[in-house]
Design brief:
This protein is of the alpha+beta class and 265 residues long. It contains seven helices and twelve strands. The protein has one domain (10-247): 2-Layer Sandwich (Pseudouridine synthase), CATH 3.30.2350.10. GO terms for molecular function: catalytic activity, acting on RNA; pseudouridine synthase activity; RNA binding.
Length: 265
């Protein structure tokens, strides 16, 4: 089956120093493994071709996983990249994510401060990027707040607002799975990772649809705030269509494997 790919995206805000975009899933941020496919960076290079010809040098500041949607901050030149990097290193940025998880947490708010490291550091792991909670891992802290509890098809789900205070790989996904509330559609952390290996080998199948429900993990970067030039600036992005449709009990319209998004000036 041939797939039609539309390479566009939504620009949220822009200045001489940075551009903020709303990345859809499953768009990858930058090229990986020399695989020819559309990337957010490639789209930005086309959009900002004139500025690049006149000295701009793009730098992705907030990297999101392929299947995570939402706000991405991109520096337009080296000085801005350096200053933005310092802001995040000093933990002066405020980030919020929305996630749909399995189950109903008993508490309205809670915190997870379990350290994390790559699972392969503890023993053989067939998934190189898989992270795990472990006492010898790096400091890691996330706060959570229940936004909504709902049922669909007789099963319980929750919409959770997540506040990562550190920036470890897969932090939110690991901490939610550790708490017993894995993110809907998460191939790596819904279980032991076997769903991810099956997906890599056979693609999206009816069996995976039954087990994972969504073709991508339901995690969205919904808010980002930073101090810039002496004042606070911030951006928001509402729930994407697939996550909103699931929460509202509607049929999900996103087709697995197809990257379709649009730019709005």
């Amino acid at each position: 089956m041939s797939l039609q790919v539309v390479v566009n995206f939504r620009v949220i805000d822009e200045s001489d120093d940075w551009i903020v975009v709303d990345k859809p899933a499953p768009l990858i941020v930058h090229p990986a493994n020399d695989k020819p496919e559309p990337t957010l960076l490639g789209g930005l290079e086309q959009l900002l071709a004139f500025e690049i010809e006149n000295g701009a040098c793009l730098g992705i500041i907030t990297r999101l996983d392929r299947e995570t949607s939402g706000i991405v901050l991109v520096a337009k030149h080296t000085r801005a990249a350096r200053e933005l990097g310092w802001i995040f290193e000093r933990r002066q940025a405020h980030k919020e994510y929305l996630a749909i998880v399995h189950g109903w947490p008993e508490e309205e708010e809670w915190e997870c401060a379990e350290p994390m490291l790559r699972a392969g550091e503890l023993g053989p792991s067939p998934i190189w990027v898989r992270q795990t909670v472990h006492s010898t891992g790096k400091e890691c802290r996330t706060r959570f707040r229940v936004e909504r509890r709902f049922q669909r098809g007789g099963a319980r789900f929750s919409l959770i607002r997540c506040f990562p205070e550190t920036g470890r790989m897969h932090q939110i996904r690991v901490h939610l799975a550790h708490a017993g509330f894995p993110i809907l559609g998460d191939k790596i952390y819904s279980g032991d990772g076997s769903e991810y290996l099956e997906w890599m080998a056979d693609g999206w199948t009816a069996d995976l649809q039954t087990r994972l429900i969504l073709p991508r993990h339901a995690l969205h970067a919904t808010m980002l705030g930073i101090p810039w030039e002496g004042k606070p600036v911030g951006w928001e992005s509402g729930l994407p269509t697939d996550m909103d449709e699931f929460c509202e009990g509607r049929e999900i319209s996103v087709t697995p494997g197809v990257v379709i998004w649009s730019r709005h000036d």
